[in-house]
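for the recovery benchmark. tokens below, seq after
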């Protein structure tokens, strides 16, 4: 029997950014068993592995149905980005199609291990920048696996899968790039001293994290006047439109300028999954409802609710809402198949009853609430952008994965 163990070298985290290097320690061990002690020949207990390779696979599992009722469409043909495919078809072992895979790395050929002997190998691979992040949506799922495949002499191919989470790189604006690199340009103007070690240019990952810190730290308050057909409800202030995973979305509501009473409100952080689908139609048919001139069907959307804030605000002039962004969700991203967006879903319960003026009795200083009021519910969606955070700030234990080959 041969035991294969794999562990990510990065401690306490199995989260990586697109373009980051993944390092994994793979150990092949021939454990000492009781039956080995009574064996008469060393040739009977030496284990032999023919070969072993390592790859990183990006899988896509989609339940998008064709509107014509044909069935689920082929995800690979829509992305048209499959690479690194080998004779070891990993899609037969896991659900979904292989969207992209790295080139296979050969660890060894013809490895012989005696009882108690082990060999260690380090696997390093850089993730592609153009692949989608890890996402487990309602209709589309993207996930990543490190596949360690090996074959024992005279046996079938067996594989060990190590799951990892991949976050998208934040889009970098060129105008912000010039501002960030001002300090580095000043170093080129300094006198050249051969005894001073020059700093290395920052990598793309370091620069992306630095840009991410700057863009999410900027406060740019935006004010929104909330009103309906009966008048003004209030004014909402959102301190910044861009956030990162783990942050709190903080906003204030001012009802002092309103002419319509707001009895209660609820704010929900929602993820909007928009499926982008193309359907061919015959040339002689006119454009059907739900299609445009380019034969592009109306996007299909799915809403998932996360953090929610609820408050009874009758009689309040000002209030605030705080909504936490979970660390396990996927930031804003877009592919050829799906567009993932985030928004704040507001629900305002308003009323125009005169009995809600809250005029107190001078004798008792108490306000008698009405037993029955007429209400209306108003819905408002406010888009927000969520960026990833540094992978080391997301606690996700990697653990050790083991495979026994008998």
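predicted aa per position
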């Amino acid at each position: 029997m041969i035991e294969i163990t794999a562990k990510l070298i990065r401690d306490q985290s199995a989260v990586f950014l697109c373009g980051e290097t993944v390092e994994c320690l793979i150990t092949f061990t021939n454990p000492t068993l009781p039956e080995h002690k009574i064996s008469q020949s060393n040739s009977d207990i030496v284990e032999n592995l023919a070969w072993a390779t390592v790859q990183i696979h990006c899988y896509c599992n989609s339940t998008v149905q064709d509107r014509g009722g044909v069935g689920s469409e082929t995800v690979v043909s829509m992305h048209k980005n499959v690479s690194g495919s080998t004779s070891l078809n990993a899609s037969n072992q896991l659900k979904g199609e292989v969207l992209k895979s790295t080139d296979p790395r050969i660890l060894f050929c013809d490895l012989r291990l005696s009882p108690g002997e082990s060999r260690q190998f380090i696997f390093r691979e850089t993730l592609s920048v153009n692949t989608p992040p890890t996402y487990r949506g309602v209709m589309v799922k993207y996930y990543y696996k490190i596949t360690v495949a090996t074959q024992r002499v005279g046996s079938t191919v067996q594989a060990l899968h190590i799951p990892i989470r991949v976050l998208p790189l934040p889009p970098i604006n060129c105008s912000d790039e010039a501002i960030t690199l001002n300090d580095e340009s000043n170093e080129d103007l300094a006198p050249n001293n051969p005894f001073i070690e020059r700093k290395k240019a920052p990598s793309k990952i370091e620069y992306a994290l630095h840009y991410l810190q700057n863009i999410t730290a900027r406060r740019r308050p935006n004010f929104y006047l909330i009103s309906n057909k009966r008048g003004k409800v209030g004014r909402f202030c959102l301190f910044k439109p861009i956030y990162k995973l783990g942050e709190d979305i903080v906003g204030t509501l001012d009802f002092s300028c309103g002419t319509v009473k707001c009895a209660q409100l609820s704010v929900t952080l929602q993820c909007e999954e928009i499926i982008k689908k193309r359907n061919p139609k015959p040339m002689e048919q006119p454009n059907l409802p739900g299609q445009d001139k380019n034969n592009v069907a109306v996007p299909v959307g799915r809403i998932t609710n996360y953090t929610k804030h609820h408050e009874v605000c009758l009689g309040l002039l000002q209030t605030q809402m705080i909504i936490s962004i979970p660390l396990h969700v996927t930031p804003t991203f877009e592919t050829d198949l799906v567009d993932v967006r985030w928004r704040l879903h507001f629900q305002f319960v308003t009323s125009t009853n005169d009995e809600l003026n809250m005029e107190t009795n001078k004798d008792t200083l108490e306000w008698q609430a009405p037993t029955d009021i007429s209400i209306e519910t108003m819905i408002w969606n406010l888009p927000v952008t969520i960026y990833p955070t540094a992978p080391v700030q997301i606690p996700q234990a990697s653990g050790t994965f083991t495979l026994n080959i008998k």
